[in-house]
Design goal:
about 425 residues, nine-stranded parallel sheet, single chain, alpha/beta
Length: about 425
């Protein structure tokens, strides 16, 4: 027999009066005035219909996954065959501290490493340089020497994990340290798989962390492209980066246009070096932003693959399928995070990650909820990784290849973007020799 609960005492509670708000039968309810546009300011139709795709030929603009022009993805089976690489960006304090964070993330199921270097390292300065004061180890790991790089990857088999290093101006030096660290592990250069960012053109556009004028920087990049093609064949010596351009205030279309234009400039650099485009183009990778406007972001990624494939084929004469494929890493939008009510950032990041996956990314970093306030705590970094794992294993989203393919809305956004992008890229993709 259950005990009867006493009635609650309501004598001191205020009375709340609810009034229903209704509209006359002949008038629709009013809503606050708002504009219907994408995050970039592009108009959005209330209902997308076939009229939004006049002249759109699915056989030439879509194709099949893994087939030219790769709009629907660069692999035939996409995530049904292999999930994207969960690659959380990490680095702070000393190499030993960052090594501990790497190990923790790998133990939690992360599939690849992504190294964040501190500002002095990005600018080619040692930690004891007077100009480094106040910045050592703050927004990345302090890396001054070969010993630091050896410590950074201590106990992590470099032939069993892919490694991305966000380093640009001093990339050749840091990569040399990395190669020696691999040698000390007994790992052959031919077994190394990963990426250097090395995209100096976006530094002049957005991030502003360059050391030399353009021509000397491009000469070093050309040397690195030649070296990797000959000696480290699985390594990507360049990650052409739109992420920083978007974070600096670009729209989705501008991010895409500037990034592709930089990519075309690096292709022309390789051709000037006498390299075979079919040999070096597969070593070029890309790095895009994922904002919260899902349909616009998905359209951006799909348009990027189509434009890149067509330019490589028609303008630069590439014939090998791997030379035509635009492969990319995605990071959720740092500028979308807020210091106020930071737990809401978990939701924002999850939606942005969904956009990246629907768009066919090859690897993904999800921001931590507290990054707007400080370096991520271990708990926040783990939750960011769990966000990807829930998306991968509990939602069913990866089970269908390019699930938004053929959408009137997504295809119309991607097609609408293609024309201005082409004009923008034509004007921006200058010959590197003119820089």
């Amino acid at each position: 027999m259950t005990e009867k609960r006493p009635e609650p005492d309501t004598t001191d509670r205020p009375t709340i009066r609810m009034t229903a708000i209704t509209a006359p039968d002949d008038e629709p309810p009013t809503t606050p005035e708002r504009s219907f546009t994408t995050l970039s300011g592009e108009p959005v139709p209330g209902v997308a219909t076939p009229r939004d795709l006049v002249g759109f030929d699915p056989s030439t603009k879509l194709g099949s996954p893994g087939a030219y022009p790769f709009t629907r993805g660069v692999y035939p089976t996409m995530y049904r065959g292999r999930l994207w690489t969960m690659r959380q960006f990490a680095g702070f304090g000393t190499p030993a501290e960052t090594n501990d964070r790497f190990r923790h993330l790998l133990e939690q199921g992360q599939g690849g490493l992504s190294v964040a270097f501190d500002l002095p390292t990005l600018m080619g300065l040692d930690s004891d340089d007077p100009r480094s004061e106040g910045e050592v180890g703050r927004c990345g790991v302090a890396t001054d020497s070969l010993d630091d790089v050896v410590t950074l990857f201590d106990g992590i088999p470099l032939d069993a994990v892919t490694t991305s290093m966000t380093i640009n101006a001093p990339a050749t030096v840091i990569f040399a340290f990395f190669l020696v660290a691999a040698e000390r592990q007994g790992v052959s250069w031919s077994a190394l798989d990963g990426t250097l960012q090395t995209d100096i053109l976006k530094e002049y556009i957005a991030q502003k962390e360059w050391v030399f004028p353009p021509r000397p920087h491009l000469r070093l990049i050309g040397d690195l492209m030649e070296f990797c093609a000959a000696n480290v064949p699985r390594w990507h010596p360049l990650s052409v980066s739109g992420y920083h351009i978007r974070e600096a205030g670009a729209t989705a279309a501008q991010e895409l246009a500037f990034t592709l234009a930089d990519g075309f400039a690096y292709v022309e650099l390789g051709l000037q070096r006498g390299l075979d485009v079919n040999a070096f183009a597969p070593g070029l990778s890309f790095f895009f932003n994922a904002h919260i406007d899902v349909f616009e972001e998905v359209a951006k990624y799909r348009a990027a693959r189509r434009i890149w494939a067509r330019w490589l084929k028609d303008r630069y004469g590439a014939t090998e399928p791997n030379a035509l494929k635009l492969r990319f890493h995605t990071q959720t939008a740092g500028v979308s995070l807020t210091a106020q009510q930071p737990t809401n950032n978990v939701v924002r990041t999850a939606i942005e990650a969904l956009a990246a996956v629907l768009g066919g990314t090859q690897s993904l970093h999800t921001n931590s909820l507290d990054e707007v306030l400080a370096l991520p705590t271990e708990e926040a970094a783990t939750l960011a990784l769990r966000t990807q794992q829930v998306l991968a294993f509990e939602t069913g989203v990866p089970d269908v290849i390019d699930p938004l393919g053929g959408s009137y809305l997504v295809e119309s956004i991607g097609s609408r973007r293609r024309s201005p992008n082409r004009r923008f890229a034509n004007s921006a993709a200058m010959n590197p020799a003119t820089l």
